[in-house]
Amino acid sequence: MFNSYRRYFRLMLVSLPQRQHGEASPVCLYQDREEGDVDQGALLIGGVFRFAQKTYSLPLRGVWQSNSWPVEVRRWFYGFDWLRDLRTFGTNGARLLARSMVASWADRPPADPVARESGVMGRRLSNWLGHYEFCLSTATEGTQQLVLDAAVKEARRLSALLPLPPIGWEGLAVLRGLLAVYMAVPHYDGFFKRFEQQLPLELGRLLGEDGIVAERSPEAQYRCVQQLTAIQGMFTTLQWMPPDCVPVMLGRACAVLRAFCHGDGGLALFNGSQERGEKAVLELLEQAERYRVVASSLRKGGFVRMTAGRSLLLADVAAPAPHGMDRLAHAGTMSFEFSHHRQRLFVNCGAAEGGAWQRALRSSAAHTVLVVDGESSSDVGADGHVTRRPSQVRCKQRRQGRVQEVHMSQNGYYPSHGVIWHRSLFLEPSGEELRGCDTVEGESDVPFTLRFHVHPDVRVEREDEEIILHAPSEIWRFRQTGGVIALEDDFYMGRCAPEQTSQIIVRACAGRDLPAPTGEEAAGSGSSRAVKPPRRQQRVEWVLEHVPL
After folding, report:
1. Per-residue pLDDT reduced to its tens digit, 8-22
2. Residue pair 86/140 in contact by the 8 Å Cβ criterion
3. In terms of Cα–Cα distance, which of 87, 501, 496, 484 is closest to 269?
4. Cβ-based burial of 515 (10 A; exposed 0-12, middle 13-18, buried ≥19)
């Protein structure tokens, strides 16, 4: 209660008029050089923009107060990430539009609470000052003063909000925004003191010693490396040595980011991630640090990574991230992705930034998992946070001879159906055979479906009881025992836009009774009348194998 009152009074104080130092232009700037989306830039010049497969009109100058966009659209647009798209488009019209939009916000910002979310404010400040040279360096002195005054006011509000509750990678964006304002207006050295104080604490909470982001997401890992790279670059611009924690944690985070990449160089699709593509990931990693280390293990972060030959298997072996770190979390516990060389074969379906696509892609059915009766193993609430997750997820990784194995189980379906799902994966040393065994155990049989989502670059056809996967320059065969196999149409959102593809479906058959409990377990029932119902087991075994040409 005391902390709530203290934060309230601090926010009231920062809203009071402050003495201005009269700076007409920034003292020092860090220039954002990340590549933007030229197509989005062209749309913005035309007065519209695209978000989550929908088109929205830009607010007119001075009309920031009157839009009715969905909250996820406002969260993105208010962060001004689209300035990067206009800068990449690069015309004089793009420059004037960017200047007009920034100046109109600085003159009359919206009263929308979303605009005052800490992560949104941090990204906005970073983008204003990171693209200052592009859109504001040739503006009038009055416009530059207006924007700098607004930036200082917002930085003071951000500073008053510290320390932050858990918000994932955006916690670094908040601190980066404070540092950007300090660089531009160094009179306010309190911004740097707050940054210096909070950075080690935020890094410890977000990354830990292993370098895996707490959100358990390759996308969040990418964003974290992005923010740390920018912070390190800002210290280089200042000609200062960064705090020791920055290069240390950046190196660890980069090693993990490399481990999250398939052979094609793009990101694996877990918990709100899209492929992004080899070019974007490689450019970021080359800018971040010169070493090419790949993390040897991801187990502390709840993932298993196994390689054999030219194959890569990545599996999510933990429950969704805890509250505050779960805005990207999907109900994909025990899902996996499998690729061979540069070709993805089995994938998850990807992610969307908002709307119905986002809700659908966060469900279990959009992952290469087992789905009981059409339900998800975790639930997501209206606010985007996970409201129910498995309470027990177990994983054991080992080698049996030269074969790599991972054995997993979770109880996400126990509250609703009284069953436990077990999954075992076996990767042969050649990398050309992946075997799996999925079992469901409970007091009665349940209707379940095994889903294997196939990458859209792979053509799929059925031959009797086998599925043939035709990848460029190679062929794979899938077969199973214990279920009923089928092919269904599917959609893939790993490359921003929906693409038609296929998924392999294996539906459950009737199970078998497990042996009755013996010994102490049976004696614990108390009498011969208190007989426990028999336990049932439904089991599907499957194999994906390379077909020599």
Report:
1. 434 444 443 443 445
2. no
3. 496
4. exposed
